[in-house]
Amino acid sequence: MIREDGNQVSYLSTPINIGFTQPIFAFNPYRWERQIEPLRFEEARKRYIEDLETISLRANNLFFDLLLAQINIEINTLNLANNDTLYEISKGRFSLGRIAENELLQMELMYSILKQHLSRRVLITKRHCFDFVPIWLSKV
Q1: Each residue of 121-133: pLDDT tens digit?
Q2: Which of 9, 113, 134, 135 gives 59 a disulfide partner, CB atoms 3.0 to 4.6 angstroms apart?
Q3: CA dihedral (31, 34, 35, 37) positive or negative
Q4: How far apart are CA 138 and CA 42, in angstroms?
Q5: Angle at 19 (CA atoms; ends 18, 22), nearest 5 degrees
Q6: Do residues 65 and 130 make contact, with C-beta atoms less than 8 angstroms apart?
Q7: 8: helix, coil or strand?
């Protein structure tokens, strides 16, 4: 600052005082944070490993559910083909008069039931496939 008489004057002051005070026997959160944080990290790491194992187990279960559903479709398709053959034989035997109409209707009913079982197994397999694909894609 320059005065009226032309002399330059400067003042020295401390407008801001920054400091840190910590009582000796009081609680120190920074020290405790340093001691606790490694334990938290270890806990999080173990939780992460457990989650990965859970996901792997779920993926394995879904895979084998899908495999079992596909095998059930193959079995039901074979059963339906066998029952279709028996039904055709029964129709021929009925036309010759060797079996009663009741037996023919029983064979037709069994054929319809097996078609329904096959349709249900196909739907179950599709559901298992849709359950498994997102898990499989997330592992790639």
Answers
A1: 999 888 888 877 7
A2: 135
A3: positive
A4: 25
A5: 155
A6: no
A7: strand
